[in-house]
Amino acid sequence: MPPEEGSSRFELQGGPEENEKSEDRKQEQFQPEDEPYDSTIEYPGALTAIGTFMGLALFVIFGHFRDFLRRWGWDKTMDATEYGNKGFVPLYNDFEAFYTRNVYQRVCDLWNHPLAGVPGAEIEIWDRKFESFNEKPKLLKTKRKYLNIGSYNYLGFAENDGKGSHDTIREIKHGLGLASSSTRAELGTTTLHKDLEKLIAEFVGKEDAIVFGMGFATNSMNIPVFVGEGCLLISDELNHASMILGARLSGAKIKVFKHNDMKCLEKLLRRSIVEGQPRTRRPWKKILIVVEGVYSMEGTTTNLPGIVALKKKYNAYLYLDEAHSIGAMGRTGRGICEHYGVNTSDVDIMMGTFSKSFGAAGGYIAASKEVIAHIKRESHAQYYGSPISPPVCRQVYAATIAIMGRDGTGEGPRRIKQLAENTRYFRKELRKRGYIIYGELASPVVPLLLFRISSICAFAKHALANGVAPVIVGFPATPILGSRVRFCMSASHTREHLDRILEVIESMEPYLTLKLSKRHKPMITATK
Q1: 524 pLDDT above the threshold of 80
Q2: CA pair distance 81, 407, nearest whole angstrom
Q3: In terms of C-beta density within 10 A (0-12 exposed, 13-18 middle, 19 or more buried), how is residue 38 classed?
Q4: Where would I find the H helices in 319-465?
Q5: C-alpha distance from residue 244 to each of 210, 216, 272, 371 (Å)
Q6: Residue 39 — pLDDT band, cuts 50, 70, 90?
Q7: pLDDT value at position 90?
Q8: Taking each helix axis from N to C terminus, what angle separates 390-403 and 163-171, rounded to the nearest 10 degrees?
Q9: DSSP letters of 326-354?
């Protein structure tokens, strides 16, 4: 039965029909290939760590010196500084503002590139001209083409050509329209939304599903629907910001366990159940474990079999974010459950987004019919958020049909296979060369650790100069020792594309010294 209005407890289990479908699909699933499961992260040696912190210390010293010059008007900058507010707490984080002003601003030309086309295997970027202090960038009329290794275009559906794109454009011209102009709870629900929800539920193996116009809001606006005051939410320490925001908005007690550490998770579960709620010691109304399928900054996959075993043992619920695993993991693209052979009925709430493998926008939640009915009644995203526009909805539907192999072209299964081959090839080649990378061989997110702040800038400039557009990430988005370049594999990449990228990476080694892995010693020094 559906939960009563305002009830903090509701049933999160799939029905008999869903369980039968999951059992049938499990016969077709496969176990992880190529290597045993290993989520441990390799850290740099002592000399690399010392060098990284010394480099940061020099930046800080020089930054304070420049701030001193700014106070007396000897150094000009357009950055906002907060002076003259004696006795008041700063309106913004002092150190992060200091870091942005003195470090990021000096190299911000390496980020925020304006795109001039779709993010396929190659991408066009508008040229910019910066004035002194990298301020007031001016957009030029020229653009350049680069190899795109940074977009979440896992299956290559982010394209303006192909059957799905052509069908969507044709239907827009013949009455599909461009917007719903209302929320889902009022007049914004169309037949296309209902068809897509039915298809997504079938695809992931759950009873029902609901779609939203924004992936971030799918987490941040819906996690509070499941837990509240008197509930316990247990989160992996590397969960996405949308999940962290949703957890904080829920009002539930939040506890964090070490990334993929099952011993830490079990200890936290056991202790929380024994101690109960703070002060009152009453039992928790509900315990919800929140994890991701593939972690977008580390490339690691969640230890789903271990988490499912613990959630059953301690009667907890499981919320699984498959933003980076749906479409990109598993033999038929059905995500991390298929990859590990886990029955989807063992995962209470399955969330995913359409902005990665589907080449569109928005997100979904798939669960039992009772849970979806609860979301429709209680979710702020249902009452205040914009729904997926009809053209985007049509694109997601076409991409899902292709992935399921029902479009008559065989393009979806071919792309899934191509992505898996590209991912394994690229990861194996980087490991042979002795680079420190995170994640297992099947994960399409491939972070290569750079560590030093200076290496981030040098890597990006050298890559762009050689026609490769990477995504570089550093503090405060990562820990100080976690600066990296993040490669995202795509089915649209060819072997020639990957070899070219490896060649560019190899050409930097004499200057940056990036081959720091102690687990995988360099075996080759150049590409073919």
Answers
A1: no
A2: 56
A3: exposed
A4: 336-340, 369-378, 380-384, 390-403, 411-432, 453-465
A5: 21, 11, 20, 21
A6: very low
A7: 66
A8: 150
A9: TTTSSTTS--HHHHHT--GGG-SEEEEES
